[in-house]
Known about the structure:
By secondary structure, the protein is mainly alpha-helical. It has one domain. The protein is 60% helix and 0% strand. Helix 3 (38-54) packs antiparallel against helix 5, helix 3 packs across helix 6 (103-120) and helix 4 (60-70) packs antiparallel against helix 6. It starts with 18 loop residues before the first helix and ends in a 5-residue tail after the last helix.
Amino acid sequence: MASRKLPKRLFKNRDVVHTYQHDRETKVGMKQMTRDHLDVLQNIEFVLVTHARHDPTIDDDIIDRALQIAMGRTDVVGETDPRVMTLCESLEEIRESREDVSDTIWRAGLRTVDESVRRHSRRGSGEKSYLQFVGPYIK
């Protein structure tokens, strides 16, 4: 019986970092964020819930748009809603106060909270499903 040949890809240069490996290593998933960086998520959610409690006109759609801008998405450029801009400014203030958190972790936190908004809400006008979900956890 002939011995089985090992695939060549096992012997490729291990010093080479391919783009797919780099992207995978720099992304931080929701599970890792909730396990290792709960404080960052709480900071972000605290800003969102606090503003929503003071201004009852803030809904899940406004929160989603503010998170999109905070993450640097270019498809929401030209946002003129003052509530969205106020949320963005508050998120930036919290970001500046957390010098111990890297930009990668902060962006991952924003992305995780945005995924939570999208999971718990349809983001329709006036819908507050996400705020009702996360509200009891924020004092």
